[in-house]
Every structure is written in C-alpha cells, then in structure tokens.
Amino acid sequence: MDNTSQESQLQSENSSTYESTYPLYAMAISSSSTSSNLQRIAVGSFIEEYTNRVDILSFNAETLTLRPNPSLSFDHPYPPTKLMFHPSTPSSLLRHSAVDLLATSGDYLRLWEVRESSVEALSLFNNSKTSEFCAPLTSFDWNDIDPKRIGTSSIDTTCTIWDIEKGVVETQLIAHDKEVYDIAWGEARVFSSVSADGSVRIFDLRDKEHSTIIYESPQPDTPLLRLAWNKQDLRYMATILMDSNKVVILDIRSPTMPVAELERHRGSVSAIAWAPQSSRHICSAGDDAQALIWELPTVAGPNGIDPMSVYSAGCEINQLQWSATQPDWIAIAFANKMQLLRV
Amino acid sequence: MLQAAVQSLHWTYTLFWQFSSQQRVLKWSDGFYNGEIKVRRTVEAMDDVKSSSSSEDEEASLQRTNQLRDLYYELLLSDGASHGDIVANEPPATPRPCTALSPEDLSESEWYYLMCVSFSFPPGVGLPGKAYARRQHVWLEGANEADTKTFSRAILAKTVVCIPLLDGVVELGTTDKVQENINFIKHVKRFFIGDHHTLPPKHPLSENSASNPILEEPQLLMELVMEEDSSATGLPDGGSNRLDSSWLELLPAEPAASVVELLHGESDNSEAETSQQLCCMEQEGHTHYSKTVSTILEGSSGHRCQPDSLPSVRRLLVDSFQSAFAKWSTSANYCHEVLVVENPQRLLKNILFRVPYLHGNQKRQNTNYSAQTLEQLEKMMPTTSHDDDLISSHVAAERRRREKLNEKFMTLRSLVPYVTKMDKASILGDTIEYVKQLHETVKKLEEKDERRRSGKKRKERAVEVSVIEGEVLLEVECVEKEGLLLDLMKTLEEVGIEVTGVKSSFKGDDDERVFVVELRGKVKKNAKRRNKISIMEVKKLLHNTINSHHHPLP
Lengths: 343, 554
Fold this sequence. Notes:
The complex is a heterodimer. By secondary structure, chain A is mainly β.
C-alpha cells in the first residue's frame, strides 16, 4: 500500500484538517454559507457513552482554515447516527436567514437552530405513543425538493416520514423484514431504503401499499448498510454490503441486476457519496484508509472499473460527505480527525 | 483606444487588465477582439474583408467583441455560479436575444478571447501581474511553449505582450510569433498616451519567417506595426483551414490538439471524446482555463439536458497540482488481495447495530414505571462505571437478555400483519389474533380438500341442449369417462341428429378432471322420425348415456 508514486500530495493548499479530542463519525456540510464566505460543518462524536457532542466548525475556502466554534457546540445523547443541515435556505421555517437548521438522529429526530453564537434545540420528533418503547433511528434523509419532509429509518423495520413544519408524522411504513439501516430520497415523494434483510426497496408515497425491490444481496440476508441516490441522475443508486469491499451501483430501471460493482478497495467500504455536480462520479471510502473517486463509464472494461483517483488517509475512513455547496471539496472523517480534501 | 491599437497592429486581440485596489488584483476590464470571426461555422478571412473596406471591419470586430462579452456574461448568469474573479463591467440586463451567439458559433481564437475574461492576476503573478509589478513591459514570445507559471493561458497566442499603462496592464496577443521590439511597445503606448510621432524605422525580421513555416507572410507583421494604414496582407491566418492548422501547430503536444476537438466536440455533443481529451488536458495543468471552459460549457449546455457531456469537464480539476487526490495507476494499485481487518466497518457497524440499543437501555433506566422486574433489577444497580465487576457483568448479561427478547419481539412483529402499535402487549395480542385466524384458514382449507376427495358422488353433470331451426348445440360437462364421447355421438345419431362439429376438452384440478364437450349438429330430415325432436327428450337420452357410462375411477 505504501507506494511512493501513489502518495497523495497533502499540502496546505489542497486540504484542511480538524482534530478533535474524541472520535468522529457523523458529519454534515451546510448548504448555505454565511456572509463572510464561511461554510459551516457539523461533526458528531462517537463515544460509547451517554454524553456525546456535536461541534460546528467553520471552513473558509479561501484561507483554507477549519476552526471550531466553541459556542456552537451542544450535547447529544449517545452518538448521533446522522447529521444533516437543511437542504436549502430555510426561509419558511425561520425568522432570519443567518441561521442554519441542523437535524440529528439518535433516539429521536431532533431539530436544532444554529445561530451566530448559540445553538437552540427546536424540536424533538417522537412517534411512540407510550414512553416505554422508542425505536431509535439508524439514519434519516432530508428531502431537498420538499424540505418539510424528513424520512427516518429505524431498527423497528419501519420508515417514518415526518412533516417537520407541522411536527407530525406524515406516514409510517413497515419497510422491511428487519432493521432498516439507511434511507434516501429520490424525488419529492419517492424514497428508498436498505435493510438487514439485504434488500433495496423503493417506496412511492402515492402508493403506500406497494414497494419495489430493486436489489437483493447475493448471499441472502447479508445486510446492506448504506445507500446513496444519485441526485444528478435519478436512475442510479449505490449501496454497500456488510463486510464487503464492493460498491454496488444500481439502475432502478433494471432491478436485481447491478449495473456495476466497483471492487478496488482493499478493505470493506464504509461510506459512499455521489458527486453533487456530476452524474457519473462517485466517491467511496473504507477500511483500507483510501478514498477513491470513480468515474462510471458507459461501457465497462473486462477487468472491471478502475477508479480515477485515490487518497490515502492515515487509518480507516469512517465517513464521507460531498456537498453541493462545496463541490470542489470532499470531507472525510477518520479516527479523531475530520479532513477536507480538494478534489 | 484598445480597438485602434490592436487594429493598427493587426494583432489578434487586446485586453486591458485593470488593477482593482479593493481586491488587489488585476481584473479583466476591457478588450477588443480582432481575430477571425466565425460566421455560420465558416471562418471569414479577415484579410479578404480588409481590402474592401476597413471601416466595415472595425464594426464587425467591435460588434464581435461586444457579442463575445455579452455571451460570456450570459453564460455566467445562466450558469448561476458567481465566478468570483470577474468584474462585471456591464452586466447584461436583457436576456440574450435569439440572434446572439451560441457557443458553437465561435472560432477557437474567439473562445480564447472569451476565456481571458475570466482571469485575474494578483500583482506579480502571471504575465500581466509581472508587468504591473515591474512597471515594465513583458514580452513573451512562443507563449504556447511557455510553462504554466509564466503564462497559464498559453493556448492560442504565440506572442503575448503586457505593457503596464495607466492604472493597469494592456495585453496584446497574436497568433504569430513576433520578436520583442521596443518600438512596438512605444507604438502601443502612443495610442494610449496620445503622443503621435513619426513612425519608427522598419526592422528586419528574418528570424521570424524561418520559425514559422506554416505562415506565409510573417515578416509583414512587423512592418505593419510600423504603418498606420496597412495593405491587405495583414493577418496570416487566411482561411479556416489555415487557422486550424496553425491552431494545431500552436499546440504541439497531442493533448492540446484535443482542445480543438473539445471545442468542436462540445458543439457536436460528443461525450466520450471530451472526457478523454479533457483528461489529457488536465495533465497540462491548465486548470484555470479548463475551469472556465467548464463553467461556460456547463452553463450553456446545462439547459440542453446534456449533463453527461460535462461532468468530466469538471473533473479536470482532479490531477491538477492542486488536488489532494493522486491519479490512480492500475499497476501500482491493482491488487487482488483484500486486507483482512479484524473488525471491518467497525464504526459503521457500531452506529447501526449497537448505538440504537444503547438508547433503549437508557430509556428504560429513565422511565419511572418499568413493567419488568428485571429492569427494576438493573435500576437498583447503577450502570455508570462501577468498581464491582460482578455486578456490572450481571447487568451486562441482563441487558443482553433483554436485547435478545426485544429482537425476538421485533421479528414476531414483522411476521404479523396489521400491527399498529409497537409495544410488547399489543404485539402479543395481535399475534394471538393472527394465529387464530390462521387456524381458521387451515381448517377451512382442510375441509375443502376433504370434500374434493370425496367428490365421486357429487353430481357434477351439466347437459345443455338447444335446438334452433334444425341446428343443434349441445354442451355437456361431466366427470371424465372413457368412451363417453363416442356414446354421445351414437345417441345423437339414433335420435336423428347428424353431428357436424365437436369441441372437447378437459378442465379441473389434478384429481378430478371434468370433461367438457360441445357438439354441434343438424337435425336430419328423417321420414321415420318425428320432425320435431324435443329438447327434453334429447337431454334425457344423453343423461342416460352418461349414467350408463358410470365406470369406477381408478
């Protein structure tokens, strides 16, 4: 793995690193930038205890500085499983536009208002009727076409669609036979989810009775852990299996047969993200400490598809985010660090 | 001023970089394009037009300059992205008229001009920057061969001159190689300072012609510099072919030729080419150029629903010296072995498998009313870091047991339909209901099966007879019997019905096969029989036939 010709040029002009005192997992990049060209990035800790924190960092793309804001840090019960900022300017939900909305998932879906120098808890979305039982969330996705919708996935095999403006459940579907691990919106009313039962299913809110299975893992019951829907070309989705070094690319028009299986990682893949500005590029990162950018060709060669470029971090990469507001930067998280890499 | 200067010189273009004090950079402020104008995909030769009327030329060039600028802003706007470097001197307020340019209409040099609009230089950086910093002119000859540090836009112009003037830098470029000449500089300055002297003497220019085999009259360029009014031998680029070849020649390396194809390719919407060539281009390191190209192209074709042709354009930035990512090389990296890690996807699995259950335990700790005594047991023992290993392991075991139970509850819930609530009591209640229902269903199905097996005695016969004007239609449905059809037909024959058509088939399940037959016939005019045959009689006869056929089934 240590091939000198492959060592990435990590210089101060093409990357920016933030080191935290605790391991990081969840990460989100804001879709709005404040006035002074600063981008907000939220990072969630991963501590196997009750007290965890979410920190908000500021990234200045011109000076390449990544700085935490101590006043914009808040507690979270147990590690947040996902963080996400509001997908567009939250004009309808907030009084003034200098604030950001951040959603976190853990035991419940929570909304936080990130202001200039403080973070306020806005709401908590709890669907359980009794207080005894709660169905913790593994992931959620904020619909960027209809931002009042957030879809959550839970270990109780259901997916819940929330109307966050009214603060009520729009619908709750039993999505799978086992725990649902990830959910992703395609259009305003279409979402898909992956589960421990090894299937990728697409749901349409107009027809809640039926779902379409577009892929099932070849070894039955191999859980599918993550899902990403290509926002630039809604035909394509990507998913990763448990303990697998493959990134499976699916075409929703041809179910059950993956379009491509990208198999160049030398360790299991932990995170995937489609390029926000291009329909043919995807980035993946995994236990081999590498982040690979792939370009999907129209015709694959006989040996499979090779990635376009590679970055080697110091250790296993756990998280990957590629934001539409900063398409030139890819954010990765490994160990205690969060790094922004110029593409 | 710019216009007059460049036209007198007959160079291809001129730009004025203005120094913006608030941003401390040199920005594109004004320019004039004097090169070839592409009209309807054919390149009009400048010199042809020139001889006829120079004033028309000027207008055409001016118009073209404005068009190019408007096009650029238009594309910027439609792209939506604010290209921070641009100083929009005259942001277009009106939407683009349909007669305006679209990217395919431009020739390569026009494209280059367009590109220049996007650049900006801090003092000391780049050719204009250096000129500004040194307050001295900079003459770059063979700009196409210069590396990116000195001249990052070395695509088209072979010679570029930057002269610091007024509050910025005037840049002139041409597709010819021109040697450095101080008089040239002075000449240009004169335009701006407004100091008209007599023309300086001509300079011989022998070296130039030898170095540029394609261009036929390069030396004339220098002469033209000296003269205010030139004859029509001006620009060396005579026609489209020559421009292309000189354009190609300007870019000796193979990747650069791809730029031409790129520009053509974009207009022809060929995706595969562009991506490949752009990948080559990136090796040259023309990052800014390519970035601008991509911005423009993306903006223009974004509306044409061809997202695929452009994503690779954006990918130009990979492998440029600025990227943190290194290019993938198959030989070095392609390795079959997958590293065996002790705990693959450790953090991800933790987040998905473990963390959600942590919440469950915490929740139970916090509730006041816990239904299970076991939970109460845990409450009595604090779960925070405790010295007593025995207690904590017991608690952990307890927790695992509870987790198992919960998991089983979940599985049970998922097997049962119509579950509304998720608490344990209703899961069990619903399951009980469901099992009862299933019992009922099983019972019913068994009964049905039973009945089916003893279906021998069951009367399963149907005989339909209809006679219309001598035409007989007979439909029989009964249990399968050997030779039944033959007997039926015989019976009909006896009755005086001539069988004209038979349709027979079997239907039914596996054990009980039902014989379905449709017989058509004609009543024979028989003297012996009555003319009218009663339907009831026929029916009775047929029934008899069927009955007499009662064979025991095997």
